[in-house]
């Protein structure tokens, strides 16, 4: 992944607010990188841009040799489907679906055969074999995040993006989640980009990118 | 992924949403709407089919020429020349007596060969197996139907008196092809051989005889004959074939169908409100799902397709359930209308189901497509930024599409643009008035200071969700109003009308009195010590010209006017205007009129036929014609039950025409011997029992209003779905509130009371609006149609408001009960 001169500005009435300024870096395949910084430093905005969920004011991102913003939104969606997995701070599980169905969804969207089998296997791997039929509201926070992790890994993505994955969890549960995420990452050999303000967590990554006021330190 | 894969995935997503209860309300709304529409559809379809399929059986022949005067012999001669089989028939009302009782019966005199089409079935004794009749009654005998047989309490071999003849009953008719009208309880039947008719002495001036020539044969011969008849048809003569299939029933049914359909649309409109509410909630709750799907690489178009397929599937499934419900419900409708519909009903066809599907799908998609389109626009960034809310819906466009769908449905069901627009406007106005009223009262109620915390909280809820509250009140109010009008108001109006009749109002009419019978009749009344009532002369004549224009029923669009132009008028003469008449235009003649060639006409009939003061009307009576100018218009109080005429002339104009006399008098109850003696002495008289006619009319009104009530039951159901949709759309907010209240120390009972207070107020308001609306309707009906003074009905207010409060508070409590049972800790965790 190559990021070059990335700038994101938003108009707030009469003034222009710069959230990211001229950010450039590259990440090699299989690397684990932590993006750290204080609240409002632009971490989440950067992650959104890396996933192609948002467009920059200027600058480029190349993923797997492809210029992300040369594609339209549907093109980027296709790229996400092919390459990316996500873990979110607020889990983002769908309340009307069971754990199993939440994990199956990305496979179903891609039209993969045996979606249920793969999902069941991965839920077993994250220790939720007995909770397949449970709805998100019947699961604890840690269990919900494990479902989210299973959902992120079930498509075997080559790039995994995680946004404060332990932000809503207590320390002990958070540690377990992190352990699980790194294990899976190793098993599948994916590139990991992790946004966090947890110092301990960032130490486990091979590289730390520090953001302050929208500028890469 | 191919189309099938896409559909498969959409269906799986649908199943998951269904299981999670996300779609129940949408489905319920569609089911109620489709059930309402298809109930009416299936029922009228069955009746329509019965009419078409049994058309020639209903006619008893392939083609019938009928007239109120004997038909020229050439009608039969030409039919025979074309190789058609021909029978003749005379039909008329007459008294039939037997076993010291008498009854107004329908006499049918037939010739050999009847019926040419359909089946005539008879039996020898009541409730024994019947058989197909191969002949007609032998000369000197009659066949009677079960109604007459039981009414006169006959036994096998008893004699029935018809006119001056005494004829033994040879068989009981169990099924007859051309039974009177099929929809209105026909009078009891006496069937006799035409050879016996002269001896009865009933064919005379003033008899209401319908002469029929009935033919049957090959279709081409029938067509040739019809063309021949059409070219020779005189006023007062009518031709009817299978294609015409009882036009009078058809048009009555068409009108009933239109009315019931529009009534059913009431529930569709309310269901639309529920669908709109539920679709908004669906949008809110699926923002995350969309964002996650987009994040996982589903394109905007794909997300949209998946949801549209889901909704189409949901619409289809709900429509199927609605159709099945409609199919079951129409059985109940047929049962309730039972004795009004005397024809055997075939199974319903597929058309109503298709109509139901179109209604269900357009309802669902019309109101949910705009939110769905908005759902496709959810930015995937929402997975990182929860503060990115719902994308803007299409605003007014969303409501415009919904309104267009409803407008289209109404115009489609009304069958014509003008009526459709009128009804659509009426709906909109009713909802608007109800809404404004509710809005005003909610604002007023929320100003009230109250000490009870639960009460205050409940009212605060109403105020905060003012729009939703107004919708619920209006929807439920309209449903309750319809039912109140059909039950309480209807009963009260009938009672008022009956009470408005003087107790000694005439209750018997005598029709068909011949001039030479008057002295004997006077003697009869004197012997019975009853004052001789006033006799009114009556001349039957056909209106042939208005000024220089000849009159044809084809000139009129209005049903009543067509009928009047087609039939004979009853005219009378008098020296003075009757007391119960009111002059509205022109001048009525005095005791010594200067000219005899003038008419005084009833105002309503003049308007129907487009006749004005000064118009010259030409009539034809038994071949001779006379003309006179309309010099006055009168209003007539028909409720007085006095004999009254549409047209009266001064003495001197009508005396030369064939005349009979008619009168009405009050017979104290229980004096049946007098009637029997009267019929015995004057067998040609027709005695009409007002009480019996009234009872029949009332029974019919009851049955019809039951059917309409049944249809409006769906309206109330739809109103309840709106209530639940409104509750559901605020469920999360209610949970959050309840949690905070619980955390602050409120008890479950307090919360329950707050909810009940909120819904009790909604119920009270809905009841208030319903009672006000029903009363206004009652007042309008009373002053415009029944012509009685109507005071505001306490029962309507009491019953309407009490029932709505209790019913809606209970429904609301059940709907929000779940909120009370959840532990506060859990809710806070979920909502954080």
List keywords for this structure.
heterodimer; A: 217 residues; alpha/beta; Rossmann fold; 6-stranded mixed sheet; 7 helices; 27% strand; B: 832 residues; alpha+beta; 4 domains; 6-stranded mixed β-barrel; 6-stranded mixed barrel; 24 helices; 22 strands
**pLDDT < 50 runs, ≥5 residues of chain B:** 180-185
Order of helices and strands of chain A: EEEHEEHEHHHEHEHEE
Largest interface, with counts of residues having CB < 8 Å to the other chain, equals:
A-B, 35 and 32 residues
* Overall 3D form of chain A: globular
The largest pleated sheet of chain B is described as: 6 strands, mixed, barrel
CATH architecture of chain A: 3-Layer(aba) Sandwich
Overall spatial form of chain B: elongated
User: Helical percent range of chain A?
Assistant: 25-40%
- Total of domains of chain A: 1
**Helix segment tally of chain B:** 24
CATH third-tier fold name of chain A: Rossmann fold
Overall pLDDT of chain A, averaged? 86
Most strands sheet of chain A: 6 strands, mixed
Number of helices of chain A: 7
Proportion of helical residues of chain B: 40-55%
Tally the structural domains of chain B.
4
Radius of gyration from the alpha-carbon trace of chain A, in angstroms? 17 Å
């Amino acid at each position: 992944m190559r990021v070059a001169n990335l700038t994101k500005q938003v108009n707030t009435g009469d003034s222009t607010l710069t959230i990211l300024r001229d950010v450039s870096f590259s990440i090699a395949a299989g690397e684990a990188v932590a993006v750290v910084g204080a609240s409002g430093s632009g971490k989440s905005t950067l992650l959104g841009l890396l996933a192609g969920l948002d467009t920059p004011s200027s600058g480029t991102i190349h993923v797997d040799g492809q210029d992300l913003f040369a594609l339209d939104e549907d093109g980027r969606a296709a790229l996400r489907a092919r390459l990316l997995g996500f873990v979110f701070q607020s889990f983002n599980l769908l309340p009307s679906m069971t754990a199993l169905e939440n994990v199956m969804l990305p496979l179903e969207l891609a039209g993969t055969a045996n979606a249920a089998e793969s999902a069941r296997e991965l839920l077993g791997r994250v220790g939720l074999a007995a909770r397949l039929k449970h709805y998100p509201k019947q699961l604890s926070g840690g269990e919900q995040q494990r479902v989210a992790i299973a959902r992120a890994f079930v498509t075997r993505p080559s790039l995994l993006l995680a946004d404060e994955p332990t932000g809503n969890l207590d320390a002990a549960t958070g540690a377990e989640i992190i352990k699980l995420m790194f294990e899976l990452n190793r098993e599948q050999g994916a590139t990991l980009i992790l946004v966090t303000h947890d110092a301990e967590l960032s130490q486990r990554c091979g590289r730390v990118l520090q953001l302050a006021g929208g500028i890469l330190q | 992924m191919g189309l099938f894969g896409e559909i498969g995935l959409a269906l799986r997503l649908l199943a998951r949403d269904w299981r999670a209860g996300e779609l129940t309300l949408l489905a319920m709304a569609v089911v109620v709407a489709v059930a309402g529409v298809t109930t009416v559809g299936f029922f009228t379809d069955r009746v329509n089919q019965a009419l078409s399929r049994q058309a020639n059986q209903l006619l008893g022949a392939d083609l019938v020429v009928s007239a109120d005067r004997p038909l020229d012999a050439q009608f039969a001669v030409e039919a025979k020349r074309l190789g058609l089989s021909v029978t003749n028939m005379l039909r008329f009302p007459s008294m039939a007596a037997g076993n010291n009782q008498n009854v107004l019966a329908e006499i049918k005199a037939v010739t050999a060969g009847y019926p040419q089409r359909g089946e005539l079935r008879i039996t020898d004794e009541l409730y024994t197996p019947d058989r197909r009749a191969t002949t007609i009654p032998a000369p000197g005998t009659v066949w009677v139907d079960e109604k007459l047989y039981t009414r006169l309490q006959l036994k096998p071999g008893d004699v029935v008196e018809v006119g001056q003849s005494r004829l033994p009953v040879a068989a009981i008719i169990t099924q007859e092809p051309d039974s009177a009208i099929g929809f209105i309880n026909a009078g009891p039947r006496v069937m006799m051989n035409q050879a016996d008719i002269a001896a009865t002495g009933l064919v005379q001036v003033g008899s209401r005889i319908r002469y029929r020539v009935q033919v049957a044969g090959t279709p081409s011969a029938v067509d040739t004959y019809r063309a021949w008849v059409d070219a020779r048809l005189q006023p007062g003569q009518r031709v009817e074939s299978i294609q015409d299939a009882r036009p009078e029933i058809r048009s009555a049914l068409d009108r009933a169908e239109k009315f019931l359909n529009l009534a059913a649309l009431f529930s569709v409109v309310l269901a639309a409100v529920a669908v709109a509410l539920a679709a908004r909630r669906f949008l809110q709750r699926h923002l995350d799902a969309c964002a996650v799907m987009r994040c996982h690489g589903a394109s905007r178009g794909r997300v949209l397709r998946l949801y549209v397929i889901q909704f189409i599937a949901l619409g289809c499934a709900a429509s199927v359930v609605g159709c099945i419900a409609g199919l079951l419900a129409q059985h109940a409708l047929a049962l309730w209308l039972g004795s009004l519909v005397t024809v055997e009903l075939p199974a319903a066809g597929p058309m109503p189901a298709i109509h139901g599907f179109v209604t269900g799908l357009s309802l669902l998609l019309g109101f949910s497509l705009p939110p769905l389109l908005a759902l496709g626009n959810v930015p995937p960034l929402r997975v990182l930024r929860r503060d990115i809310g719902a994308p803007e819906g299409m605003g007014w466009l969303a409501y415009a599409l919904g309104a267009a769908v409803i407008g289209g449905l109404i115009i489609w069901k009304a069958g014509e643009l003008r009526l459709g627009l009128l009804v659509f406007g009426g709906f909109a106005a009713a909802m608007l008035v109800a809404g404004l009223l509710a809005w005003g009262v909610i604002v007023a109620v929320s100003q009230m200071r109250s000490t009870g915390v639960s009460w205050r909280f409940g009212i605060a809820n109403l105020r905060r969700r003012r729009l939703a509250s107004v919708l619920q009140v209006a929807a439920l109010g309209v449903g309750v109003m319809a039912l109140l009008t059909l039950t309480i108001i209807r009963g009260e109006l009938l009672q008022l009308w009956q009470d408005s009749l003087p107790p000694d109002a005439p209750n018997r009419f005598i029709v068909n009195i011949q001039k030479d019978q008057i002295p004997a009749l006077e003697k009869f009344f004197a012997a019975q010590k009853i004052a001789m009532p006033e006799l009114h002369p009556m001349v039957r004549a056909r209106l042939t010209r208005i000024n220089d224009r000849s009159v044809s029923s084809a000139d009129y669009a209005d049903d009543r006017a067509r009928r009047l132009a087609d039939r004979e008028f009853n005219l009378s003469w008098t020296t003075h205007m009757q007391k119960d008449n009111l002059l509205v235009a022109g001048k009525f003649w005095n005791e010594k009129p200067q000219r005899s060639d003038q008419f005084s006409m009833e105002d309503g009939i003049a308007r129907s036929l487009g006749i004005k003061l000064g118009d010259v009307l030409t009539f034809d009576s038994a071949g001779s014609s006379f003309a006179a100018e309309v010099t006055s218009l009168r209003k007539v109080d028909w409720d007085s039950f006095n004999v009254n005429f549409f047209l009266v002339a001064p003495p001197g104009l009508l005396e030369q025409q064939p005349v009979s006399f008619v009168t009405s008098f009050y017979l104290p109850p229980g004096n049946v011997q007098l009637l029997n003696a009267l019929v015995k002495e004057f067998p040609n008289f027709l005695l009409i029992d007002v009480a019996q006619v009234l009872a029949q009319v009332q029974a019919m009104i009851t049955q019809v209003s039951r059917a309409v009530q049944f249809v409006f039951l769906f309206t109330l159901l739809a109103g309840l779905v709106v209530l639940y949709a409104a509750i559901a759309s605020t469920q999360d907010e209610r949970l959050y509130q309840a949690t905070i209240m619980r955390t602050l120390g409120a008890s479950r009972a307090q919360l329950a009371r707050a909810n009940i207070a909120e819904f009790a107020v909604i119920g009270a308001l809905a009841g208030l609006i319903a009672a006000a609306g029903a009363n206004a309707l009652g007042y309008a009906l009373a002053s415009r149609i029944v012509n009685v003074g109507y005071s505001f009905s306490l029962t309507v207010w009491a019953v309407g408001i009490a029932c709505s409060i209790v019913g809606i508070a209970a429904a609301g409590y059940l709907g929000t009960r779940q909120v009370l049972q959840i532990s506060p800790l859990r809710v806070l965790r979920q909502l954080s």
